[in-house]
Design a protein that fits this description.
2-enoyl-CoA Hydratase, Chain A, domain 1; disordered N terminus; globular; alpha/beta; seven-stranded mixed beta sheet
């Protein structure tokens, strides 16, 4: 005969069978049964079941291998142009809150309020990895500002390691589709698709702050399945590579052969080097200059 008890672990409940003889079962209430754990009160047990139910729909942050917790990367679909493995020195201000959700809700609300205020001044933000969610927001902002006033310039600050090629091309096509000029300003890092969007701003109105870093390279991706499936994905990657390099050659004034050679591996540039390369038109020493973009014929060395 066995007695089933409930014990708790780090992230789940476990049923443990405690064997004992039938003779001892008659004296169950007269003898102390030593358990390897302390039973949870009903209130805490109910809360634990509730947390387990809510966690079913969430994506795993890590996978337990039996000896250690290993981070779990979400699967990516399509062609990507991003460097998420860059070891960038950091000095975080916010502590690591529960489950890595970032700053507390009060700080997040204030941050969204600041973003809204900047949007009223026709300033939009391209920050973080370029994905479909970011692209949908930026596309909607660009279309709205175009409808409100097609004559005033739009300023887009870029601080991105790159991301999805198709999402980035949605932003790029919208920048060319709308009537206002789009001035791009690099702050921090513009890599991969971030650098492509930086160079896609209106010529003469593409800037960078002095300590920013800019990097270009070829698209990244992977394929699996049969030979035909792999050939299809390989041809798709070649299409995106040729398309992106063609636009980079047009935006920078460099030859297509040089673009193909430079993007074969990660090609990092400082703000000054990016200006000489043709990715940007000027290095801004005074951030207020970004609100009043210079004419395309101006020197741009402010």
């Amino acid at each position: 005969m066995a007695h089933t008890c409930i014990s708790t672990s780090a992230s789940s409940l476990r049923l443990t069978s405690l064997p004992f003889s039938s003779k001892s079962s008659t004296n169950l209430y007269s003898h102390n049964l030593s358990l390897p754990f302390h039973p949870l009160p009903p209130r805490k047990l109910k809360k634990l079941f509730s947390n387990q139910k809510n966690a079913r729909g969430s994506q795993p942050k890590a996978v337990y291998t039996g000896e250690f917790w290993a981070p779990e990367k979400s699967s990516r679909h399509g062609i990507w142009s991003i460097r998420d493995d860059l070891q960038i020195p950091s000095s975080p201000y916010f502590p690591a809150y529960a489950q890595g959700q970032g700053p507390p809700p009060m700080v997040q609300e204030r941050f969204q309020s600041v973003i809204t205020q900047l949007f009223q001044y026709r300033i939009i933000r391209c920050g973080g990895a370029v994905d479909d969610d970011m692209a949908n927001i930026i596309v909607a902002q660009l279309l709205y500002l175009d409808a409100v006033d097609p004559e005033k310039d739009i300023v887009m600050y870029v601080n991105s390691p790159g991301g999805s090629v198709t999402a980035g091309m949605a932003i790029f096509d919208t920048m060319r589709h709308i009537r206002p000029d789009v001035s791009t300003v690099c702050v921090g890092l513009a890599a991969s698709m971030g650098a492509f969007l930086l160079s896609a701003g209106t010529k003469g109105k593409r800037y960078s702050l002095p300590n920013s870093r800019i990097m270009i390279h070829q698209p990244l991706g992977g394929a699996q399945g049969g030979q035909t499936d792999i050939d299809i994905q390989a041809n798709e990657m070649l299409h995106h590579k040729a398309n992106l390099n063609g636009y980079l050659a047009y935006h920078t004034g460099q030859s297509l052969e040089k673009i193909n050679q430079d993007t074969d591996r990660d090609f990092f540039m400082s703000a000054k080097e990016a200006k000489e390369y043709g990715l940007i038109d000027g290095v801004i020493m005074n951030p207020l200059k970004a609100l009043q973009p210079l004419a395309s014929t101006a020197d741009g060395n402010e």
